[in-house]
């Protein structure tokens, strides 16, 4: 579903990604982990069509980036720590706005379905500015899945959430993954990543330095694996 070969990203004289290799099978949930400055957000921005690679090949859902960015966007849902919602619209008005952007036919049915999935059906008529941070993040996931994307990208989605909101987001992420979508998530929360993901890739100094599946991790734990990968990089 995602295939990246020899990806390089430069900002002026500074090289952020250094020949990165990365692939994700359909239905996989990959946690992309690494220290600050490793290039995680830069990499997700390239996958999300928000930034162009300097060199290398990037394929998402069978389409090439950056040349087929419009086709990729139709297959993609993106959630970051910024919800990208309109605070003076209601929950359902936000979803209707994004649904129209994607040309969804069964709009009202789909809005109800998504609101139920993210646990906000009883707040559908409320303005988003009255929502807590956690509720906004759940609605942001609803915004990102309204067009039923094949690939979901989550960039530090837990930033700023309290414990209750984080647990609610866990449930929504499990639902998203259980529906068969391909998921890539960056996170500094190793415990949450270990519970949710089926594979763990460590990004350090612009390249993937180690990778392990959930099954392979049973011999150790994610924290030990993470520390060893960074020590070896």
How would you describe the oligomerization state of the chains in this entry?
A: single chain
Q: How many individual helices?
A: 9
At the fold tier of CATH, the topology name of one domain is Rossmann fold
- CATH 2nd-level architecture of one domain: 3-Layer(aba) Sandwich
Distance between the termini: 27 Å
CATH class of one domain, anyone?
Answer: Alpha Beta
SS-based structural class?
Answer: alpha/beta
Q: Could you give me the name of the CATH homologous superfamily of one domain?
A: P-loop containing nucleotide triphosphate hydrolases
Low-confidence stretches: none
The overall average pLDDT, rounded, is: 94
Strand content: 25-35%
Any idea what the shape is?
Answer: globular
Strand order of the biggest β-sheet: 6-7-8-3-9-10
Number of strands: 10
Q: What is the N-to-C succession of helices and strands?
A: EEEHEEHEHHHEHEHEEHH
The percentage helix is: 25-40%
Largest sheet: 6 strands, mixed
> Measured on Cα atoms, how large is the radius of gyration?
18 Å
Describe the structure.
With 233 residues, the protein is of the alpha/beta class. It has a domain at 1-75 and 150-161 and 183-233: 3-Layer(aba) Sandwich (Rossmann fold), CATH 3.40.50.300. It contains 9 helices and 10 strands. The protein has helices at residues 40-47, 69-74, 91-101, 107-117, 133-145, 163-178, 190-196, 214-217, 222-232; strands at residues 2-11, 14-24, 29-33, 55-60, 63-65, 76-79, 151-155, 182-186, 199-204, 207-213. Strands 6-7-8-3-9-10 form a 6-stranded mixed beta sheet, sandwiched between helices. Strands 2-1-4-5 form a 4-stranded antiparallel beta sheet. Helix 3 crosses helix 4 and helix 5 runs parallel beside helix 6. The mean pLDDT is 94.
